[in-house]
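Good day; I would like, with your permission, to put a structural problem before you. What I wish to show you is a protein chain and, alongside it, a tokenised description of its three-dimensional fold. Please examine both parts with care and let me know of anything in them that strikes you as inconsistent. Thank you for your consideration; the sequence and its tokens are set out here:

***
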Amino acid sequence: MSPTKERKPFRARQGEQKRHPGDGRRAMGVYWVPSGKASGMRPLPLLSLPPICAALVDLLSPSTSHSPPVVHLNSVQSHLSELTPIFVSRLRSDLTAAIMSEELTYAEVSKHSTKKDLYLVIHDKVYNASTFVDEHPGGEEVLLDVGGQDATEAFEDVGHSDEAREILEGLKVGSLKRGPGDPAPKVGATDKIAAGPGGRSEAGTGLGIAAYAVLLVGAAVAYFGYTYMQSQDKK
């Protein structure tokens, strides 16, 4: 009786495709995909997949004791294309939430006062205007003068349009954590009402309407007075 020879582990030579000794199942994080083509589908070649991809393959592939998981490349690509917008949207919302929840002190904001690194505070919100300096209609000097400071008063004095306020909203990087000794803006809810459409404040609009009404009443009184005098002269 000849002695039993010890079997050496299977090792593929360089340039030769590996073959799984078993039924084609996953082993040690490597998917062994049977060769051959399904109708119009290209089988996924032998790959060492990262955990997230391996989990996706598990979801896409049937797993039974009699049929090894065969994963086709176009199937994986189609599912990834469906998941990508979801991941991107969730990532964007998470980043936005993180940015909005960030609090900066006045001392931290004051460090950002150069053209390439310019922060502003408007109504206790912090904005990074670095990318908008060259595009500012009033010139870069206007922004640099209030760089690293509370620019609420300067912003409201100009009376910005709705479009300008939308641009400002896109530059938001956080909120101001105001301390006891920090300078407070002179513009407030009691001093000046926030500007409405077109950049004009509601207070200014109200004064304009009142002045127009006074002129209208004065014109009516003058007209009726003139008519009355004419009728008296005829008599």
Observations:
- The chain has three domains: 30-95, 105-199, 201-235.
- The two ends are 154 Å apart (CA to CA).
- The domain at 105-199 is CATH 3.10.120.10 (Flavocytochrome B2; Chain A, domain 1).
